[in-house]
Amino acid sequence: MAARRAPMKPLDGRTVLLTGATGTLGRSIADAYARAGARLLLSARHDAPLQGLAGELSARYSTEVAVHPCDLSDAADIRRLPDEARRLFDRLDVLVNAAAVLGPVGPLWEVDWAEWTRAIDINLCAPARLCQLCVRSMPRSAGRGKIINVAGGGATSPRPRFSAYAAAKAALVRFSETLAHEVADRSVDVNCIAPGVLRSRMSQAVLDAGPERAGPEEHGKAERVLKEAADGRLRAAELCAFLASDASDGITGKLISAIWDPWESFGEHRADLGATDVYTIRRILPEDRALSWRGL
Fold this sequence. Notes:
Number of domains: 1
Strand order of the largest sheet: 3-2-1-4-5-6-7
Strand content: 5-15%
CATH topology: Rossmann fold
Number of strands: 7
Largest sheet: 7 strands, parallel
């Protein structure tokens, strides 16, 4: 009797490039992708944690996992990442930009300007450059390419004392929506996710900054998150797996909350998602707030 074939996994045959792979969220995304059958090229700044994570995932899921350390403030390093994916796997199907830095904390006039611009470079310019490079590499005949950019606090509302981080994440959302329109005829879907507040090095950095620099509200939020038993990283990883799969084909140009949005049912509402501006950033008019006067 012939051996029974194992059932196909949602991401079988897909090659994923994941930045920020050794961070709190990145590790969860890597685990979700490996479990779903993807081949992975994991990137972060330091080699040793990458090697450890790759070993864990390969042993747990029997999938191909490669690593490539990268400094996202180095343009040459960034250029090498997509080339490495093609060299190892002959193709690149999914890009996930999960790497980020918090940047300087405090009022704009008090922070170090070099740190401020470095945060913009890593949180906005690096993912945009990777999108540019990877779109060229994504196949146009075998399935859809997928780009997933991780937004965060400040993308949809002001975040005082975190101006570099907030500005970069808001710009990343608008960039992603714009890119989604540009690549519509290339069979590439581009989306942003809002993972929610996570127990992470970033939350610890907010706590370490203290209430005077971070502000009492942000400091208190970080304190609560770091004490909680659970956070949203698994939910965010599941959303990333959904957006990398065929189940999300044609869903593009959206900012999706891992915690609050009913993304599991998005496949049933594909037409509405494509025809409207739901799950996007838009200007609010007086009538949207039941005000009788109109803006000038």
